[in-house]
Structures are given as C-alpha cells and as structure tokens.
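Hey, I was hoping to borrow your eyes for a little while. No rush at all, and the record is pasted right below.
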Amino acid sequence: MPVSHSAAPVPPTDDPVGEWAAWRADRDRSLTSATGNLALTETRWLPVGETPDREAARAGQPEGVTVTTVARTDLVTGEPEHGLRFWAADAPAIRAYEGTEAFPYDPAWVLDAEYAPVEGARKVAFEHIRDNGGSRDLVVPGDISLTVDGREYTLSAFDDDGVLLLVFGDPTNGDTTYGAGRFLFVTRTGESTVRLDFNRAFVPPCGYSDQYNCPMPPRQNRFHLPVRAGEKRPVFRDGFPDSH
C-alpha cells in the first residue's frame, strides 16, 4: 500500500519550524487533490481471475472522477486480487474537510537512532484495519533501535516504495490522535543511522477515507509514553458522516 510521499522526510535545514510549516501546507494540498486521500470514494475488488479495465469503468462516470487500479494478495488463497479505485475531485470528504489538527513543533521529538539492515527479504506480519483480525506480511529491511524516556525500543519500519515507513502507536491514540495509530517516514542519515522526526508523524490514509486498508502498529512499535508531536486527526464540518 504505497503511501503518498508528499509526507516523506526531507534533509534537516536551518529553519526546521519553517520547513515543518511548509510540509503541513503541502500535506493539505495533497490530501485535497483530485486523487488525494480525501478523494477516494470507492474501492471495487474484482472476482478472482478478472483483470481491471479502467476505460470501461470510467465510462459513464461524472466529470472529475479518476479511475486507477490496485492489487493485493488474498489472505486465504494467496492468489493475487485486482481492483479499481474511484476518486472524485469534489468528493463529500473534500468539501467537508477543514484541516488536520497538529501539535506545535517540538525539537525534542526529533530523534536519532541506530539502523541495522537485515540480510534477505525479511517479512513481518502487520494486522490491517479492514482484514477482520487478519495480517499481511510486509518487507522490513532492518531494525531501528532507540531509547525513549529511558526505555529501549526495536522498531519495525517496512519498505514503502523505497522509503522506510514506521507505523506506530502511543497513548494519545483515540484520545487526541487518530485511534488506529500514525505513520512516519524515516530519514536515512548514514549506513547505520536514521532520524525520526515525530513532528512529521501523520494520519494514515484510512483516517480520510474508509476505502483504504491501512496497517496497524505491531506490538514492538507501540510507545509507552504519549508522543505529543505531529498530526492529531482530521477535522470535518458539522454534519459530515464521521466514519473515521
């Protein structure tokens, strides 16, 4: 499930607060674009063996609708499944969206960590929101080791189209932040080092559309203390169905 890299990490600068503000603005532009997270209105999985026909699916759709393809592996049979996704430039979620709340920038939540690559394509099981307790194996190319508030963690970040993506949880989930956890792209700073800027932690795609099937934090990626940095959760105008 490649995630839009509009949220991806950038090298450190002399103006971290300004760069963070620019990142926040870019996030909003991406979320509300014609194929942004808020625009996804339908994911239509096809019967086993069928391949998607985007042109046929697009026929008869209103102006402003984009159709793309998506694939996954069936949890039971292991066979590939194909589907179609429908994106509406004027989706109800876009019209109702008012922004995504966030904590103020906090330099204390920019953490350096050790990174140990793992030989071969090691896979780790991640439970997904829409799989009713089932899990999908994702490639985790290395271990991230760091100490937070005196406790040692070994985190699993999976490969998301060439970038390390950390899915993490903390006690703020369901209270002040998105209930199922948050995402964070990890910046490589050397062969054996990485940086985690939790100010750029973001609400996963499933926080903006229930048509996504997002991975949830495994046990090793759950912090014992509140991570009061990064995005909290999206805000919609009164009357918009809250299914997130």
Q: What stands out?
A: The helical segments are 16-31, 54-58, 92-96. The radius of gyration is 18 Å. The first strand starts at residue 40 and ends at 45.
